[in-house]
Specification:
With 180 residues, the chain is of the alpha+beta class. It is globular, with a radius of gyration of 16 Å.
């Protein structure tokens, strides 16, 4: 319940923008995302630290599935400091159907109603869907994801260059530990 409350508060606060955020140029998404290639398991390589992942010490993953109704089911998981698996299940919806690159996610449901949604914009994507960069227009949140638990250093540098071009500070990202 604590995780849900923290996530709710985080989403509410992310919807508020400061004067500095308003001066940022628009966040540019990739031109097109093939959702059938995007679904599956992704390992978190790095993230901008956030309160709703404070318990995550290692092994953070995100898995996307399309159910029989066409909904995108999101399952985020990680291990806490005691080695206990923490799982959060949610729903994603495509906001920009022309590109499929702008989505919103929700991990809170009250009687089937999802009152809180957070931006999930795909701003970088390997042509073979081996890595992805997800951000938000405020630049407050960001994730680097990979199909493998580790990315080569030259790929990380390429992603950091992409982040700089999108007005993110790569130094804001912390590398995530994966299970070895």
């Amino acid at each position: 319940m604590k995780i849900v409350l923290i996530f709710l508060l985080t989403i509410l606060l992310s919807r508020c923008s400061s004067p500095q955020e308003k001066s940022l140029p628009d966040l540019v998404t990739v031109k097109k995302v093939d959702l059938s290639k995007y679904i599956g398991l992704w390992y978190e390589i790095a993230k901008i630290p956030n309160s709703f992942q404070d318990q995550c010490v290692y092994g953070t993953t995100a898995e996307y599935k399309i159910d029989e109704d066409g909904d995108i089911i999101v399952t985020n998981s990680c291990y806490d400091e005691d080695g206990k698996l923490d799982v959060a299940e949610g729903l994603a919806k495509v906001v920009d159907k022309n590109t499929n690159a702008k989505l919103e996610v929700s991990f809170v449901s009250f009687l089937g109603i999802r009152p809180f949604w957070g931006d999930y914009w795909i701003i970088g994507l390997d042509e073979n869907y081996q890595w992805a960069v997800v951000g938000t227009p405020s630049r407050k949140y960001g994730w680097i994801l990979s199909r493998n638990p580790k990315l080569p250093d030259d790929t990380i540098e390429e992603i950091f260059s992409l982040l700089k071009s999108q007005n993110y500070n790569p130094a804001d990202f912390e590398m995530s530990k994966q299970k070895e």
